[in-house]
Structures are given as structure tokens and as C-alpha cells.
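Write out C-alpha cells for Small conductance mechanosensitive channel.
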Amino acid sequence: MDLALTWQRFTELADVPAHIAFLIVLGVAVRFALSRLIDRVVGTTAGLPKPKNFLGSQKAAALLSSPGGLYHERRVQRAHALGSLFKSISTAVIFGVTFLMVLEQLGYNLAPIIASAGVVGVAIGFGAQNLVKDFISGVFMLLEDQYGVGDVIDMGQATGTVEGIGLRVTRLRDGDGVLWHVRNGEIVRVGNKSQGWSSLVLDVSVAYDEDVAQVEELINDTARALSDEDEWRDRILEAPHVVGIEEVNGAALTLRMIGKTRPNEHFGVQRELRLRLKALFDAKGIRVPAPIWPGQPGQAAGV
């Protein structure tokens, strides 16, 4: 009788390593399969096409949605960042559960361990509320694609160009060169000035008695020619054009141009347009209002 009981206990003990090995192999297999599934979902998400009319322009859609385009790059970056996050979470959960099951096979009572872990978790939760808040805010920021590296954003506390994004902290550099570290949990609102595209707004003033129709045609021709050049074609998403007279006073008419460019490219396009319009006005004899200083009667011509 004692021999039979001893043999039974020996058999049970011999089965423990086999069970532990099986649990470890199962955990690794589940983790591998889940990682492959996440990679496949990430690849599918990164390759999803953007709607062709999201800017009302086929040219803009082609530039931004094509492989290597801005929307495609942002979509790929966000998908890989989220995929990496989900892999880390799934790995921690799978191996944590596997570890507990191995302890159970070794004869440990899991109830006190789980209870202690719960108490520690509650204590950490109370002590690290801000950290948890920052982490959750960072996750939602990535999911919603609120901003990306290179975007110009206004966070209220600071305004500048995003240089780095983490789950806890966002780094941005303002116009004075100051690098700001802003906790994600403290961000109440975000104004993204360059997500997808930047708006070009340029006011052009000419003398009050100039032919508005002629000036408008010349400005539009210049803008179209600029947008067709190889150097500028990929920067301009929607060719700038005159939308009308923005302001009228006794000395000048102000025409407003609007257009769309790639993010943060509107500054360079505006400067180039000003340069070309200056040369055009000089060549065509189109006058612009000039300041009249005390003791200097009349109005000077030129740009």
C-alpha cells in the first residue's frame, strides 16, 4: 500500500516538469501567434487608402495618399507605434498568466499572491495617478492621430514644432528655440496648425486706380506658373488664387490669395510669390501704395 502511494506521488512529481514545459511552450506559442496577428493588422491598417476627395483636389489626394506621401507616412508611423504598444501589453499579460500557472503547478497557493498583488496595484494606482493619466492620454493621442513629429501645434502651455512623442511626455520646440516637455495628461486642448496641409493666405495691395481684373489675372497666372514648376509642384497642393478684394481704402485695393501647401511649406511659397509679383509689377508698371511722409507730397511708384 505504501509502495503504491509512493509510486503515485513520484508519478505526480514527474508530471510537474512536463506540465511546466507545456505551459511555457504554450505561452510562447500564443505570444508568437498574437504578435503575427498584430503585425498583419498593422500592415493592413498602414496600407489602407485615404479617400480621394478629402481635400477636394485630386492632386492633393495623390500627393498625400501615395506611398511616401504625408498621410501614408503618418499612417505607417502610427500603426507601427500602436502595434508595438499592443505587443508589449500582450506579452506582459501572456507571460504573467503563464508565470502564475507555473507557480500553481509547483504547489503554491495563488490566492494570497493575487490578493497581495491587488493591494499593491491599488497602492500604486493611488500613488501614480498622474503617471496613469499621462499614459492613457498618450495612448488616445496615438489612436486619434492628434499630432505627429514635425507638426506645428498650440498646446496652450506652449506653441512650437513637435520633436518627439512618448506615451507620457510630448516634446516641442518653440520659435525661441526652447524645448518644452509637456506631460500628456496635462494637455487639455491641441491646435494642430499643419496636420495634413497648411493654408496659404497672402494679401497683395495695389494702387486704388489700378485695373482690378487685369491685376487679378496677372496674379493668378503667376501663381499657376509657380505651382507647375518642378521645384514647387510637390510643395503646392492647391494653386494659390485670388478670391476677391479684402480691403479698400483711399490709397489702395488689397486682393487676397488663398491656397494649400504641404505642412509648413506655405512660408516658402508666400516668399517666392512676393518676389515674383514684385518683378511682375515692376515689368507691367503696376503701382502699389507707398507711404507719404510729412513734407514729401505726392505718392511714389514701385513695390
